[in-house]
Amino acid sequence: MTPSPLQTIETRASWVTASVALWLMTMAFGANWITSVALTTIAAEVNGTRSVPALAMSLTWLGAAVGGILMGRIANRIGIRWTVIGGSLMIAIGLTISTIGPPWPLWIGHGLFMGLIGLSGINAPMYIYTSQWFDRRRGSALALISSGSYFAGALWPPIFERAVAYIGWRHTMLTYAVLEMVVIIPLALIFLKPPPEITLAATGHPAATRVAPARPLGLPRNVFFVLLCLAGILCCIPMAMPQQHLVAFCSDVGFSLATGAAMLSVLLGTAFLSRQIWGVISDRIGGLMTLLIGSGAQAIALSGFLVTQDEFGLFAVSFAFGLGFSAIIPAYALAVRELFPASEAFWRIPTVLMCTGIGMASGGWLAGFLYDRFGYYLPAFGFGVFSNVLNFMILGFLLWCLSRAQTPTAATGTPANATA
Fold this sequence. Notes:
Number of helices: 17
């Protein structure tokens, strides 16, 4: 049942905060798209080995994923404002170090500074922080702020393509380092205030102190959570491949870098817009069902990269892929808030996001590795489809366990496995 106005923590300030969070995420995630757009240019400096810049992008995802667990705890103690400001500074340092050149400065700049102590202070803490401003439309809010990475992908690649062409990838990184600090730091200082779920709880407000009963899951809670995390890895392996390699893939099949950047913008622009629709849907059907539908849609769209290489077809497949995969990441955070106690959100959400980050890192690097081994991208896309099918099977099993546990028994009228 929807809470009444007196029982909800949502206000106009909640949506202002979510909108600011969107821009913070857009700027933070913009940095990694420079390497994606300049992948072939950077690879040319290491004898055309694309796995070198691909690994740098993967290390950013992996570092952000692993560091998010610690940063979630730090933000819970000192406030998100300071982890966001610190993350912005580290991203700038990481971009600067990366300009020294591949491979090691590029890997250290991306993995350690941009990922482990940069994005990690912004990404996972922002999911937790935003969820604490909402209780009725949490799925929509999480969908909005998680779209920052895809809004960045739609906004920045065409700009970066022109910048790399005119001033080179190194000066593009240095310019963006300054820009992201100028935007992120003032926004964090002005808008990132303590969330109402915490401040109202201290005053005994009914909206913040309302405790939902534990939901039966049909499996021991931590077993269910481990399987959810495994699903997060498997779904993000294929998710990363087109995002990180589409521009290079287009170059291989005869299209210009500008065309590849345009396709990437279509893919991520579609993801940004459709994610808002998925957020509304997830508020109605729940996070886990949204994950299952998004997984199936992503697998079908990814298969399209195996069967078409003409320009119109690739634009269509890019559109379809953005439409499908956009449902997935915020639905993991929503599923955690729906299925597990709110008091555990500060470590469960970063953990599941760590697993999705591991998947993104693995998928991006694996596509580059398989390309270097075979000389074309079809083996990578084929493995991505296989990984996606495994993800779909796990999610289907979890949904079956959940529905079975919550189905009232004929004899007692209580959910089966209610104490699970």
